[in-house]
Amino acid sequence: MTGELLLGPGEVARTMRRLAHEIVENNHGTDGLIIVGLLTRGHPLALRLGRLINEFEGVEVPVGSLDIGLYRDDVARRGQPTPLRPSSIPANIDGATVVLVDDVLFTGRSIRAALDALLDFGRPARVRLATLIDRGHRELPIRPDFVGKNIPTALIQEVQVLLKETDGEDAVYVLNTEASHA
User: Fold this and answer.
1) Is residue 170 part of a domain?
2) By three-state DSSP, how is residue 128 classified?
3) Is residue 142 situated within a structural domain?
4) How far apart are CA 79 and CA 118, in angstroms?
5) Residue 92's CB: how many other CB atoms inside 10 A?
6) Does the pTM of the predicted model rise above 0.90?
7) Helical residues (DSSP H) of the chain, grouped into ranges
8) Which of 136, 147, 164, 176 has the maximal Cβ count within 10 Å?
9) CATH code of the domain covering residue 38
10) How many folded domains does the chain comprise?
11) What would the pLDDT profile of 138-172 be if each residue is shown by its tens digit?
12) For 42-92, how does the pLDDT look when each residue is reduced to its tens digit (9 = 90+)?
């Protein structure tokens, strides 16, 4: 596979700061705000957003994690079972504004699964979606409220997000997978 670096560590950090400010501005502050990251890479991004909001607002916003494995619509087709990881919702979501966080928005199917999983924990007043990368190609009518970067891609391409917490570095690459199949 060949790839192109789209965001390096500095760009990822600036993008996350901007997203944190947009979330607080859209919510008119931090009251009733809960941030929930999808496992795996959405959770470290959610933790970063929580830390950034704390830095400039002086308020600790509850941050949690959500495992969508059992809610995916491709569970039967995947062959091997998805390992289950515990979800952790740190506050009552009833009546709250929940910001779901994921690294890449593609078809929208993961977010549909996340909405189903989230509603098992309660009934939020509003659910917002923040994503580091929106690559297009939606199969479901799902749109992010907060986008780090829109990256138009071809279906044969792949977007790879690397995070310091999971991969040792912060970077976003677009991989050309067709070259590896030739």
Assistant:
1) no
2) strand
3) yes
4) 25
5) 12
6) yes
7) 9-27, 42-57, 109-119, 164-167, 178-181
8) 147
9) 3.40.50.2020
10) 1
11) 999 999 999 999 999 999 999 999 999 999 999 99
12) 999 999 999 999 999 999 999 999 999 888 876 556 566 667 789 999 999
